[in-house]
Amino acid sequence: MTLRHCYLLQPDLFKGRYCNVVIETHSELTMGMTVVDWWGVTDRHKNATVMREVDADGFFSLLTQRLKNL
């Protein structure tokens, strides 16, 4: 079971924000870096939900519950 599955089963365990996310392809110093516009300082359209917090106890409880059902 992945975090994605857990989010689909119990989204209230996660906190995040819809942001613009791009991969840097021009700068020699940061080539390949994932850049997240968390604060919305650019005019780029939002294209991804970025999760920054997870309820660890709730996640492991859900994971344990699902494993018991196997």
Structural class call reads alpha+beta
| Strand element count | 3
Q: In terms of per-residue confidence, which ranges show pLDDT below 50 for 5 or more consecutive residues?
A: none
Q: For the CA atoms, what is the radius of gyration?
A: 16 Å
Tally of alpha and pi helices: 2
Can you give keywords for this protein?
70 residues; alpha+beta; three-stranded antiparallel beta sheet; 3 strands; 30% strand
What can you see in these coordinates?
29% of the residues lie in helices and 30% in strands. The protein has helices spanning 3-9, 56-68; strands at 14-23, 34-37, 48-54. A 3-stranded antiparallel beta sheet has the order 2-1-3. The protein has one domain (3-68).
Short description:
The chain has 70 residues and is of the alpha+beta class. It has helices at residues 3-9, 56-68; strands at 14-23, 34-37, 48-54.
Topology:
Layout: H1 3-9, E1 14-23, E2 34-37, E3 48-54, H2 56-68
